[in-house]
C-alpha cells in the first residue's frame, strides 16, 4: 500500500492517511477561523481535497471524519462505533445485540470488520499441522473468523513458533459458562501446539468502566484466575497477570504501553471505540494496555528481550476493535502484527438476540450453579424453537436454529453424530422440547460439577505460581 503518491505524504496505511486527513481538516478550519491569507487557505484546501482522493483510491471508501477505515479496503462500513445507520446488529466491546433470533449475522460482521472467514480449508490445515482432530469449536464454526492464521501456520511449519494471548475483564466474582469458551479453546491450542500463553486480567479496565473499587476489581481478578486455572492450563507454560500488579512490576510492559500511546491519536480511538469528550482519560488510554501483551518483549521473563515472537489471540469477536488498533500500530513501532481467531457469542438463555451476561442472573448459567439450578434455569428460561403443543410439534417439528438448548449443545456436546441426530429428530418432531432440554441439562450438570471440583483443587499457592512473572517452559 505504498502507492499513495504525492501529497499523501508517504502515508502507508489507510489509518495513517485517515489521520493526515483529520489533521488537514483541522488545519483548514484553523486557517479560516484565523482569517488567514486566501492563498494559504486555498493551498490547505487543495491539499485536503488531494488527500481525500488518495484516501478514496486507497480504501475504496469516502473519507468521513470520525469514521476511521476498517482493515479491509473494500467495505464501506467502518467498524463498531460507526455503525447503526443501516445495520441492525450492534457488536462492540460493550454491547452485543441483534433483532434476529438466530443471532448476529457473522458473515456480515466479517465483511464489516475486514477479517477472514475460517473456511474448511483452514480447519483442515490446522488439523494437518497440529496432527490433532480439530476442536469442536472449529469443526462447528464457533471460532469462525481470523486474521493471519495462515501466516502463523506457514511459520510454524518452518519451525517458527508463536505464543498465545487472551484475557478477561474481571467485573464480578460470578463467571458463567459463556466466559469459558475462549479459555476452553485456548487450552486446546496450548496443548496441540505446545506453546506459551499469557492471560491478561484487566482489573484496571473494570475499575475505569464500572462502579467498583480498585480493591474489588483486583480481588475479582484473583477469583477469576481460579476459574481460569480450573480449565486445565499448564502452569509451566502459562502466565496469568492482573494489570494492576503487572503494570507496576514490569518496566518493559509499561514501555510498550507508552509507545502505543504515542502512536494512536484521540481521533483514532474515538473512531474505533466511540469514546466521547466526556469519557474519563483512563478509558481513552486503556486500549494501549490491552494492546501491549500482543508484543513479546512485554514479557522479558518469558521471551528474553525478543520482540519478534508472533502472537496469536483467541477471543470473542467483540474484542476485535482493540486488535484492529493494535495491528495498525504494530508496524509503526517495529513489531509484528498479532494474528487472531474470533469466536461467536454465547447466547443468553432467552435467545440469541444477545449474549449471556453475568449481570442478568436469569440469562446465565453460572459456574457456581447447583445441578438443580441448572435444571430449573434451562427448563424455565431457555428459549425454545419447539411448537406450542406436542401435537403441533410432532406434526411440524421444531426449529433448532433459534433454539437455545440446541445452540448450547453445539458448544458442549462432543459427539458430532449424536448432535446431528438430535438436530434431525428435533427438526422432524421426533424429539420434543422437554427431551432436548433434558439432554442439555445432563450435559451441563456433570460439566459444571467437574469444573467446581477442579476449582476446589486450585490452592492459593497454585494461583500465586501462575501469577508470578517467571520463565516458562518451551522451545521457540
Ligand atoms: N477486555 C476484555 C474483557 O472485558 C479482557 C481482555 C483483555 C481480553 N485482553 C484480552 C479478551 C485479550 C480477549 C483477548 O473481557
Automatic annotation (TrEMBL):
<dbReference type="GO" id="GO:0005737">
    <property type="term" value="C:cytoplasm"/>
</dbReference>
<protein>
    <recommendedName>
        <fullName>Tryptophan--tRNA ligase, cytoplasmic</fullName>
        <ecNumber>6.1.1.2</ecNumber>
    </recommendedName>
</protein>
<dbReference type="InterPro" id="IPR000738">
    <property type="entry name" value="WHEP-TRS_dom"/>
</dbReference>
<keyword id="KW-0067">ATP-binding</keyword>
<dbReference type="InterPro" id="IPR001412">
    <property type="entry name" value="aa-tRNA-synth_I_CS"/>
</dbReference>
<keyword id="KW-0547">Nucleotide-binding</keyword>
<dbReference type="GO" id="GO:0005524">
    <property type="term" value="F:ATP binding"/>
</dbReference>
<keyword id="KW-0597">Phosphoprotein</keyword>
<dbReference type="GO" id="GO:0004830">
    <property type="term" value="F:tryptophan-tRNA ligase activity"/>
</dbReference>
<dbReference type="GO" id="GO:0006436">
    <property type="term" value="P:tryptophanyl-tRNA aminoacylation"/>
</dbReference>
<keyword id="KW-0648">Protein biosynthesis</keyword>
<dbReference type="InterPro" id="IPR014729">
    <property type="entry name" value="Rossmann-like_a/b/a_fold"/>
</dbReference>
<keyword id="KW-0436">Ligase</keyword>
<keyword id="KW-0030">Aminoacyl-tRNA synthetase</keyword>
<dbReference type="InterPro" id="IPR009068">
    <property type="entry name" value="uS15_NS1_RNA-bd_sf"/>
</dbReference>
<dbReference type="InterPro" id="IPR002305">
    <property type="entry name" value="aa-tRNA-synth_Ic"/>
</dbReference>
<dbReference type="InterPro" id="IPR002306">
    <property type="entry name" value="Trp-tRNA-ligase"/>
</dbReference>
<dbReference type="Pfam" id="PF00458">
    <property type="entry name" value="WHEP-TRS"/>
</dbReference>
<dbReference type="Pfam" id="PF00579">
    <property type="entry name" value="tRNA-synt_1b"/>
</dbReference>
<feature type="region of interest" description="Disordered">
    <location>
        <begin position="62"/>
        <end position="96"/>
    </location>
</feature>
<comment type="similarity">
    <text>Belongs to the class-I aminoacyl-tRNA synthetase family.</text>
</comment>
<feature type="domain" description="WHEP-TRS">
    <location>
        <begin position="13"/>
        <end position="69"/>
    </location>
</feature>
Amino acid at each position: 500500500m505504498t502507492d499513495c503518491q504525492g501529497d499523501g505524504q508517504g502515508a502507508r496505511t489507510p489509518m495513517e492517511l485517515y489521520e493526515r486527513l483529520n489533521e488537514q481538516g483541522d488545519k483548514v478550519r484553523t486557517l479560516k477561523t484565523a482569517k488567514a491569507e486566501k492563498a494559504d487557505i486555498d493551498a490547505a484546501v487543495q491539499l485536503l481535497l488531494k488527500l481525500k482522493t488518495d484516501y478514496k483510491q486507497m480504501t475504496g471508501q469516502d473519507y468521513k471524519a470520525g469514521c476511521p477505515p476498517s482493515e479491509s479496503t473494500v467495505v464501506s462500513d467502518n467498524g463498531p462505533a460507526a455503525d447503526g445507520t443501516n445495520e441492525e446488529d450492534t457488536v462492540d466491546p460493550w454491547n452485543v445485540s441483534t433483532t434476529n433470533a438466530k443471532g448476529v449475522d457473522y458473515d456480515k460482521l466479517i465483511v464489516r470488520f475486514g477479517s477472514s472467514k475460517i473456511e474448511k480449508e483452514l480447519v483442515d490445515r490446522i488439523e494437518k499441522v497440529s496432527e490433532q482432530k480439530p476442536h469442536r469449536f472449529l469443526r462447528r464454526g464457533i471460532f469462525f473468523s481470523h486474521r493471519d492464521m495462515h501466516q502463523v501456520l506457514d511459520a510454524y511449519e518452518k519451525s517458527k513458533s508463536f505464543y498465545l494471548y487472551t484475557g478477561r475483564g474481571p467485573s464480578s466474582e460470578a463467571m458463567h459458562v459463556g466466559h469459558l469458551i475462549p479459555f476452553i479453546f485456548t487450552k486446546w491450542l496450548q496443548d496441540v501446539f505446545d506453546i506459551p500463553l499469557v492471560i491478561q486480567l484487566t482489573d484496571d479496565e473494570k475499575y475505569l468502566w464500572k462502579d467498583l473499587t480498585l480493591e474489588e476489581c483486583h480481588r475479582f481478578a484473583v477469583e477469576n484466575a481460579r476459574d481460569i486455572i480450573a480449565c486445565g492450563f499448564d502452569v509451566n507454560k502459562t502466565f496469568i497477570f492482573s494489570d494492576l500488579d503487572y503494570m507496576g512490576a514490569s518496566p518493559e510492559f509499561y514501555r510498550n504501553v507508552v509507545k502505543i500511546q504515542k502512536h494512536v491519536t484521540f481521533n483514532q480511538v474515538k473512531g474505533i471505540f466511540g469514546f466521547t469528550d466526556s469519557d474519563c482519560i483512563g478509558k481513552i488510554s486503556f486500549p494501549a494496555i490491552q494492546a501491549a501483551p500482543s508484543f513479546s518483549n512485554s514479557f522479558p521473563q518469558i521471551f528474553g528481550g525478543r520482540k519478534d515472537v508472533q502472537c496469536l489471540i483467541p477471543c470473542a469477536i467483540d474484542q476485535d476493535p482493540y486488535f484492529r488498533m493494535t495491528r495498525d500500530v504494530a508496524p509503526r513501532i517495529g513489531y509484528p502484527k498479532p494474528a487472531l481467531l474470533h469466536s461467536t457469542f454465547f447466547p443468553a438463555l432467552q435467545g440469541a438476540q444477545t449474549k449471556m451476561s453475568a449481570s442478568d442472573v436469569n440469562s446465565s448459567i453460572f459456574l457456581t450453579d447447583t445441578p438443580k439450578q441448572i435444571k430449573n434455569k434451562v427448563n424455565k428460561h431457555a428459549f425454545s424453537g419447539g411448537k406450542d403443543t406436542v401435537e403441533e410439534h410432532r406434526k411440524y417439528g421444531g426449529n433448532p436454529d433459534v433454539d437455545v438448548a440446541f445452540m448450547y449443545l453445539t458448544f458442549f456436546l462432543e459427539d458430532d453424530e449424536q448432535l446431528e441426530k438430535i438436530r434431525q429428530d428435533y427438526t422432524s418432531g421426533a424429539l420434543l422440547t422437554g427431551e432436548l432440554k433434558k439432554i442439555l441439562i445432563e450435559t451441563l450438570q456433570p460439566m459444571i460439577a467437574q469444573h467446581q471440583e477442579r476449582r476446589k483443587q486450585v490452592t492459593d499457592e497454585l494461583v500465586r505460581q501462575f501469577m508470578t512473572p517467571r520463565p516458562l517452559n518451551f522451545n521457540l
